[in-house]
Design a protein that fits this description.
Order of helices and strands: EHEHEHEHEHEEH
Radius of gyration: 16 Å
Helix content: 40-55%
Bound molecules: 5-O-phosphono-beta-D-ribofuranosylamine
Distance between the termini: 13 Å
Largest sheet: 7 strands, mixed
Number of strands: 7
Strand order of the largest sheet: 3-2-1-4-5-6-7
Oligomer: single chain
Structural class: alpha/beta
């Protein structure tokens, strides 16, 4: 059966990568297979998760010269059809997006267009939601374009805020009840579209 070859780009603990690995293992992610993990720095938890799952993993240090060139070469070498940014903390250039030319999706821990864009990542997103006093937040999976967190929205899922929430408790709940649910679903939607296109070209 044709499947889309997926690369997952990570910067941290890899819990969103793990959600993708689990979804693939239980058949919820069936139109795509994780063929590669790219970590943008050494020593992050996502690397061990990839190793445990037997997925090839490359470390391409984001702060090093030629980061985007190296990532593009790796994606080409592994014949990747789509990229999932899962807890990735970098911003890809418009040139990278154009040169890759295939779907790139990202998980952002808020309901875009709230609390997104430059400077909104990790705990900062949840602290901003608490500071503003919103009663509902959540997560968004969107296509990546040249505008940070600006691409077409694919899926969203809401999470209620409770009075006792701190940025840490809210982040955890958004990860568990929103990010880890919609990222695999969105990956399946995009991978299935790629497979349909591959089949129509046969
Ligand atoms: C978390 O802040 C999460 O909300 C965001 O990326 C960070 C780490 O994710 N999506 P992960 O555990 O590395 O997937």
């Amino acid at each position: 059966m044709l499947t889309a070859r997926i690369a997952v780009v990570v910067s941290g603990g890899g819990t969103n990568l793990q959600a993708l690995i689990n979804a693939q293992a239980c058949g919820k992610l069936k139109s795509g297979g994780i063929a590669l993990v790219i970590a943008d720095k050494a020593g992050v938890g996502a690397i061990a998760r990839a190793a445990k799952a037997g997925i090839p993993c490359e470390i391409v240090v984001r702060k090093d010269e030629g980061f985007e060139e190296k990532v593009l070469a790796s994606l080409e070498r592994h014949q990747i059809d789509m990229v999932v940014l899962a807890g990735f903390l970098g911003i890809l250039s418009a040139d990278f997006i154009r040169r890759f030319g295939k779907p790139i999706i990202n998980i952002h821990p808020s309901l875009i267009p709230s609390f997104c864009g430059k400077g909104f990542y990790g705990l900062k997103v949840h602290q901003a939601a608490l500071d503003y006093g919103v009663k509902v937040t959540g997560a968004t999976v969107h296509y990546v374009n040249e505008v940070p967190d600006g691409g077409k929205i694919i899926l969203q899922r809401a999470v209620g805020i409770i009075a006792s929430d701190t940025a840490e408790t809210l982040q955890r709940r958004v990860m568990e009840h929103a990010e880890w649910v919609i990222l695999p679903k969105a990956a399946e939607i995009v991978a299935a579209q790629i497979v349909r296109e591959k089949e129509s070209n046969l």
